[in-house]
Amino acid sequence: MTTITDTTNSTTSGTVNGTANRTATRGQYRRPDAAQRRTAGSGGAPGGRVSVAVYAEDLILQTGMIHQLRVRPEIELLPEAEADRAQVSLVVVDMVDDPTVQLLHRLQRNTSTRTGLVVGFFESGALQTMIECGVAAVLRRGEADQDRLVHLVRAMANGEGVLPGDLLGKLLDHVSSLQRTVLDPRGLTLSTLTAREAEMIRLVSEGCDTAEIAQKTSYSERTVKNVLHEVATRLELRNRAHAVGYAMRHGLI
């Protein structure tokens, strides 16, 4: 596999906003003109420009991504020297292999940038890798037209995640499997409550007092009080009624 490089290391030309034959030389991109600077807001804000750094594994992928994004006023493509300040990093590859994973881990260290993956072939085993690498959005290359790419970039800049429907289904299955095989045997959950805490708050919601909760859960009354106090302290809840309301609003019970 060719080493993944920042797509700003290239030379490409084209027509932008009606001006023909403007050329972006190596390491440089056309910057917003004065009018664009007057109208552009902060990246991710409605009507604002989103700063994007693009990484690709070969020149063909590189050129295609630049061609799609550089004509859109919502996007500000950054040169390699400024890639660290990007709001969004787009990684364009055929498949998720070792060099891709290394790049994703490197990008993950920049907490001010969210990473999206445009991939040709997504193996089922790559889902766990994607999660571990902090990828916020995935788009298949065959579906990566200009509008979908811009939607992906703006969604990430606004703190949203984007996944194809089938990958979303696999992710939910993965989470369910994780809960069933790893967390349940240890009495843990993916929520902010442990299984024991959720059960006790559920019993509170049913009108049980401390003694009744202790009897139903086979814990001492002191343990019940300690558990409920811990939940209230951790989640900054005022009382048991507040705890029940919180748990119900967040789907925890």
Automatic annotation (TrEMBL):
Bias (Low complexity) ranges: 1-19
InterPro entries with a match to the protein in the record: Tscrpt_reg_LuxR_C
Keywords from the named record: DNA-binding, Transcription, Transcription regulation
Keyword Transcription assigned: yes
All residue ranges annotated as the HTH luxR-type domain in the record: 186-251
Location of the region described as Disordered in the Swiss-Prot/TrEMBL record: 1-47
Pfam family, one: GerE
Top-level taxon: Bacteria
Alphabetical list of PROSITE patterns matching this protein: HTH_LUXR_2
PANTHER family: DNA-BINDING TRANSCRIPTIONAL ACTIVATOR DEVR_DOSR
Protein name: Response regulator transcription factor
